[in-house]
Amino acid sequence: MSEMKHPILEKSKIIKATIISLIVGAVLLVVAVLPAEYGMDPTGAGELFGFSKLYVPEDAGTTSLGAMVSNSSTPIIKLEKAGSGPTVERPVEADNPPPTTQLSSREDETKVVVPAGKGIEFKIDMLKYGKMKYEWTTSNGEILYFDFHGEVKQEKEVKEVYFESYTIANSNNIVGTFLAPYEGKHGWFFRNTGDEDVVVNLRLKGQYTL
Q1: Average of pLDDT values for 195-208?
Q2: Looking at the structure, do residues 48 and 117 belong to the same domain, yes or no?
Q3: What pTM was estimated for this model as a whole?
Q4: Which domain holds residue 114?
Q5: Is residue 93 located within the same domain as residue 32?
Q6: In the sheet where 163-171 sits, what is the strand order?
Q7: Residue pLDDT, tens place only, 96-150
Q8: 4 belongs to a structural domain
């Protein structure tokens, strides 16, 4: 039986492979690991390749939205909070056909002051299938409870107005697009549970009137 001959690597090749591995490891450390894990980017390559964006400071959780939402002081929002209660019927006006002509497009910026310990609404008028883009941000990153909702325009006055909630959450910044499902007033209810007034910077662009 013939013996199997195992290839024997030359010492120079082993040293060469080791050096290459060390160089590759050092490059990965400087370019990827340091910027992503420790926020250190001595060469600027971490920012160039996007690794610096992965770095999150340890103390960021004290002011980030994620930390605030997970805080036990922020109540969980349930499905039952969305829209009118089951005893309020959906008005027939909600099913009216859309107009042949929409409102002219416009763009506005405004500030809404939400008093400490209170709630306030900001609404606009839109026709059915009117379009809008919106953005709002609290001035100092304060977290607010909000209900983005709409009320159907009805021919007769009613004791309890029917409304539908589009988004309910706790946040300090929201951006989105909106297509009005019916003619009426659409907007935000903000609630401030803090001890100081909160200023909301609101930007709107679309087919609406103030």
Answers
A1: 97
A2: no
A3: 0.66
A4: 79-207
A5: no
A6: 119-126, 184-191, 144-152, 163-171
A7: 999 999 999 999 999 999 999 999 999 999 999 999 999 999 999 999 999 999 9
A8: no
- How far lies 151's CA from each of 39, 42, 110, in Å? 48, 55, 22
Please, what sign has the CA dihedral across residues 15, 19, 24, 29?
A: positive
Residue 125 belongs to a domain: yes
Q: What is the pLDDT of residues 155-201, one digit of tens each?
A: 998 888 999 999 999 999 999 999 999 999 999 999 999 999 999 99
What does 152-202 look like in DSSP terms, one character per residue? Answer: E--SS--SS--EEEEEEEEESEEEEEEE-SSSEEEEEEEE--SSS-EEEEE
Residues 38 and 114 in one domain: no
